[in-house]
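Let's practice the habit of predicting before peeking. Look at the sequence and jot down your guess about where helices and strands might fall. Then scroll down.
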Amino acid sequence: MIINIAVVCFFFNFVYYKHIAITMDHSKQFKKLSIIIPAYNEARTLREIIRRVQAVQLTGLEKEVIVVDNGSIDDTPLILKSLSGIRVLTLNPNRGKGGAVKAGFTAATGDILIIQDADLEYEPNDYPAVIRPILEGKTEVTVGIRINPSMESRSNKSLYWLSWFGNKMITWTTNLLYGNKAGEYEGCYKAFTKELISQITVRTDDFDFDNELICKILKKGYKTVDVPIHYYPRSYQEGKKINWKHGFKILWTIIKYRFIN
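Done guessing? Here is the structure:
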């Protein structure tokens, strides 16, 4: 079924997206980066990830760190109370990852927004590279393409072949249905202008939030820019939450929003 839909959309995209042109405003002046950190029961890694985020040097940009405590029942709330230099939003009950990110986006005062998971899978020192294409006026949205120098190590192999295949399927389907050429979409780091986010309404509060958001951005005619980022996957024993089963819902989201808004 997916293949049949994809074949039809290929020809439609060739005609439709070819005629959509988004003119970039190269005169924009960006002053602040807002970092949105959704956190649910991340007491084990929270202090360290916030330390790393606060340590990142951004030349010419103010930095705003927003942590969204998404109904945590561990020591996450206590840890957040003990930290300075951050804004804390508390959601109770838990609203899903998408709900937490939406709350962070709404509260953000920065010109550029970036999503940061509360675990240690991603390296905040990649921020300058992730936002550079936006600062240079090349795009309104960047997508992090994961590079893991330790994937050959047995202890770091949390991306099993099924997850790898699912990721490739998600990428292929999105690119085909929306006329984009991204290397992948499932990495955490995605950066957006606040102006762009203000144009998009995302319905879901679940793990497919990123996919609905990206699909609606692409549907408006914007193109993503790939940026290589470092990736150090954790295992499910270490607290990794998303799994291969989420892939089916994500694929449905990608197909569904090709035809509805």
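How did you do? Strands lie at 32-39, 62-70, 87-91, 112-115, 141-147, 190-193, 225-230.
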